[in-house]
Amino acid sequence: MNRYLYDGTPEGLLAAAAFIIAEEADPEGVSLAERENTLFEEGRFIAPDPQIAETFFNRLRREAPDAASTFYFFTLAEKDGLDTSLLRYLALSFRYGDRVNGNLTHPAVRDVVTISRKVSRELHRFKGILRFEKLRDGAYLARMEPDHNILQPLALHFSKRLRAEDWFIYDVCRRTAARWHRGVLQLGAIEQFTAPALSEEEKKIQALWQGFFRSIAIPDRRNPRMQRSGMPMKYWKYLTEQPGGSINRGRLKQ
To answer: Among the four residues 74, 173, 177, 185, which has the most C-beta atoms within 10 Å?
Structure first.
């Protein structure tokens, strides 16, 4: 089996996939892995090429737009060890078009589609549960700890929904943030995160919302198991209305 290596980036993977699909008669008989730069590592390294990667992805979007979307969401999952599966998925996408996503009996397709759908579901969920808090300086801050690296598509969503406001979205786990300021969206790493000051208006709104949430609750019908199934506890931390939802406010420093 021919073995190929790439630099570990989505662009590098696309460039490697473009080369392999063009050169190999049977991509199913090829393996692809991220280069580790070890002494005895075997395989042919395919150098990253942004232009080739862009051309390849644009072709994929034209011929199999659903498969292109599936690939994009898969890259946000940050899953290691599935490079060969992704290569085979891409090769099959050009052969069968968007019908590829229905071929879940193929191991590579099943791996890629299953993970991609998890990312898509989490992104959709955060569009509804992300909580923005108004800070004393008038900007808004939302914090989150998603399983997947969904900051960029989530920020793009809110750049259309909250165009008139200045806001930050902070991914606590990855220490990255998106900033929307005067119509410009910026993404980057965060050097330090310290406690921000909430506006007095925000404090009042949170108190009213928590009071409303308690007042509509019916103690005799409390069902923690059902509540957790509808909203997993891992998301409660930053929900104003949930226990523990008003903790450790923070300010961003770039």
So the answer is: 74
Q: Are strands 133-134 and 140-144 parallel, antiparallel or unpaired?
A: antiparallel
Residue type, 204: K
pLDDT in tens, 34-63: 998 887 889 999 999 999 999 999 999 999
77-102, pLDDT tens digit by residue? 999 899 999 999 999 999 999 999 99
3-state secondary structure of 2: strand
Pair type for strands 2-6 and 251-253: unpaired
3-state secondary structure at position 155: helix
Residue for token digits 């498969």? Answer: 67
Instruction: For residue 135, list its beta bridge partners.
Output: 198
Beta strand 167-171 pairing with 140-144: parallel
User: How far, in Å, are 63, 77, 89, 109 from residue 101 at the CA level?
Assistant: 14, 18, 9, 7
- Reduced to 3 states (helix: H, G, I; strand: E, B; else coil), residue 246 is coil
Q: Is residue 179 helix, strand or coil?
A: strand
Q: What is the pTM of this model?
A: 0.85
Tokens 């598509």, residue located: 153
Torsion of the alpha carbons at 13, 19, 22 and 25, rounded to the nearest 10: -80
